[in-house]
Every structure is written in C-alpha cells, then in structure tokens.
Specification:
CATH architecture of the domain at 3-178 and 216-241: 3-Layer(aba) Sandwich
Largest sheet: 7 strands, parallel
Distance between the termini: 45 Å
CATH superfamily of the domain at 3-178 and 216-241: NAD(P)-binding Rossmann-like Domain
Order of helices and strands: EHEEHEHHEHEEHEEEHHEEHEHHHEE
Shape: globular
Strand order of the largest sheet: 3-2-1-4-5-6-11
Oligomer: single chain
Radius of gyration: 19 Å
Bound molecules: nicotinamide-adenine-dinucleotide
Structural class: alpha/beta
Number of strands: 15
C-alpha cells in the first residue's frame, strides 16, 4: 500500500504509468498533479476512486508541499517536452522543467521523513550528440536544444539535492518513447495519423538521424522496478532506460507506412531541425544490473499496437491535428513548419 504523487499524469508517459499502476496495484492511492497544458488532458486520467486529480502547477510551492506531505513516493514527469517548440519559444521550458523541479525537490526535502523515494524522469536528450555509440550514464552531458538544456538543469539539480541533502532520489533517463496517448506533435503518432489521413509525412533532414525507440509499457515496467527496488542501492543513481538498438527516423517512417499499407510516396524530406542530434543508442547494462530490467516489446509489435490504438481513437487525436507542426526559423532565416 503506497500513496504516490505523479506529476504530469495527464500527459503521455505519466498517464500510461497511472494506468499501469492501477492495473498492477489496485491498493495504491495515486495523486495526479497536472497543469493541463496543451499536452495534457483529462481524458487521459482514469476516473476511479484510487486516483485523485489535482489541477495545478508544479511551480506552486504551497500546493506541491501539501500534496507531497500526503505521499510516500513522488514520480515527477511534468515538463514542457517538445524539442521543436523549445526552439520557437523556450521560456516555459526553463520555468517548468528547471524551476518546477526545484519546487518538487524542495518539497521532497521538507517532507524527507515521509518520502521513501523520489523518481525523477529525465531524458536521453541531456547527452546531446553521441560522442560514442552505445551511450552509458557516464556519457558527457552536451544538451543540444533549449529543451535538452532545461532537462539537463533539472537532472543535475535533483542529483545535487541527493548529494547535498541526501534526499532519496533516483534519476531515470528514458530514450525515445512511443505508444498510445502520445501527442501528435511527436514523430510516431504524427507518422501514424498522417498515414490514416493519407497526408504527406515530413521527415527532417535526410532522415538518417537515429534514435533508440522504446514502447511506453516497457518504460512503465522499468519505473515499477525502480519503485520496488532497494532504495539504498538506487538512491543517487542515474539509470538509462532504452533498448540498446537504434533505428533511423527515415527507416522508422518507412516501417510505419509499410505496416499501414500506405504508399512510401507520402514521405517528404524537409529542412533539418536546429538543435538536431544525429545518433542515440542506450547502454542497457546499468538498468539490467540495478533494476534487472530489459525491454520486452520489439519495435514491430510496439508500432502495431500504437497503430491499432490511433486507428481506434480518432476522437482523442483529431483535436490535436492543428498542432502537428510548429513554425521555426532556420539558421538561414527561413520560416519552416516542422
Ligand atoms: N516522450 C518521450 O519520448 C520522453 C523521453 C524521455 C524523457 N521524457 C520525459 O518524460 C516526461 C513526460 O514526457 P511526456 O512525453 O509524457 O510529456 P507530455 O508532454 O505528453 O506530458 C507532460 C505533462 O506535464 C504537464 N505539465 C506541463 N507543465 C506543467 C506544470 N507547470 N505543472 C504541472 N503539470 C505540467 C502537461 O499538462 C502534461 O500532462 C517529461 O519529463 C519528459 O521530459 C519523455
């Protein structure tokens, strides 16, 4: 029996984790704190007695403190998350991702006596371009976009609170997640819904940049292990969560087009995105050693399950269609929809 605060629980990964916990631990009490920005929505949050929803901002210190004082565990997902949007307007990224995390970490510190663990959701984007292939947790942090730098600030802030004050923090760095309930601004749902609508699929640059794609259910599994594992072994640790395999974005788009029986002529190559990083592939050793975790959903299966979900949930995603692209100004001053 635990009471868990899940910030950002109305977004993609947070709401998948809420559903995962509800199914596996029907006794747990979950408190979801979410500001319902454009990225979060109430449809994502199950309306059941075990889930208490709080509409609010992670920067509201008093609210955060009140909620954390009632919990045993905090899992902090809330953030501004879209790389391209951070190029267009980055203020909120630093406010939410850095200062919001400071607010959460301060409340965890204040309530140290009742908080058993604080799981901070960081990202592989903090590494920037790969200095070496198969990136482990010792890879230098060279964030290459305002989003990535805000997340790197939050990641190191949490680490410093563990180092200075001994808060029971575990830092998880997921690689690229995909699956049901992901906003249409992100690559996989954008490609799938473009196929459903028979519309062109924009691919940045030459499509050769590669990512380590992880089905969200596998992430939930890893977080569950971080929730249940011995906190004395986990606190202060940074753990990558990825598959150890990478696929180029152009290849991924072709896989989706083929799985959906659409034409490859839908693929359209546009200018590259500023702040792009070429290669990302996770080392899986530490997650294996500390969490005994390894991914289990192969990419073809994860894509099929995602395709199936988007085919069945038009009404969920149709209202996001206008947000599938973001206007950005390229290095040579051109305005492009990305
Ligand atoms: N999606 C990925 O591939 C990925 C990969 C690695 C790490 N991450 C990290 O995982 C976390 C969740 O990502 P996601 O893809 O689910 O994001 P998302 O954009 O789908 O959801 C973010 C949620 O946070 C909420 N939120 C935003 N600002 C808030 C604020 N000030 N106060 C309270 N709530 C606020 C939003 O309303 C939304 O519900 C983020 O920290 C992100 O950096 C995501």
């Amino acid at each position: 029996m635990k009471t868990i605060l899940i910030t950002g629980g109305a977004g993609f990964m947070g709401s998948n984790f809420v559903r995962y916990l509800l199914k596996k631990y029907p006794d747990y009490k979950l408190i979801v704190l979410d500001a319902l920005t454009y990225a979060g929505c109430m449809e994502n949050v199950p309306r059941v007695p075990n889930v208490r929803f709080w509409f609010g901002n992670v920067r509201n210190a008093e609210l955060v403190d009140t909620l954390i004082s009632q919990c045993d565990v905090v899992v902090h997902f809330a953030a501004e998350t879209h790389v391209t949007r951070s190029i267009y307007d980055n203020l909120l990224f630093f406010e939410t991702d850095v200062l919001g995390t400071q607010c959460i970490a301060n409340a965890v510190l204040k309530n140290n006596s009742n908080i058993e663990r604080f799981i901070h959701i960081s990202t592989s984007e903090v590494y920037g371009a790969a200095r070496f292939d198969v990136m482990d947790e010792e890879h230098p942090l060279m964030p290459a976009s305002p989003y990535a730098s805000a997340k790197a600030g939050a990641d190191r802030l949490v680490y410093s609170y563990w180092h200075t004050y001994g808060i029971p923090a575990v830092i998880i760095r997921p690689f690229n997640n995909y699956g049901p309930y992901q906003h249409l601004e992100k690559a996989v749902p954008r490609f799938i819904t473009s196929c459903i609508l028979n519309e062109p699929i924009n691919i940045h640059g030459d499509g050769k940049m590669s990512r380590d794609w992880l089905f969200v259910e596998d992430l939930c599994n890893a977080l569950d292990l971080a929730l249940q594992g011995d906190i004395n072994e986990l606190k202060g640790e940074v753990i990558n969560v990825g598959t150890g395999k990478s696929i180029e974005i152009g290849t991924l788009a072709e896989m989706i087009v083929d799985l959906m029986g659409s034409s490859r002529s839908l693929l359209r190559y546009v200018g590259d995105r500023p702040g792009q990083v070429m290669r990302h592939r996770s080392s899986t050793e530490k997650a294996q050693k500390l969490l005994e975790w390894h991914y289990s959903v192969p990419i073809e299966e994860g894509l099929k399950r995602s395709i199936d979900w988007y085919k069945k949930n038009h009404s969920w995603w149709e209202k996001q269609l206008w947000m599938r692209s973001v206007p950005i100004i390229t290095k040579d001053g051109k305005i492009e929809e990305h």
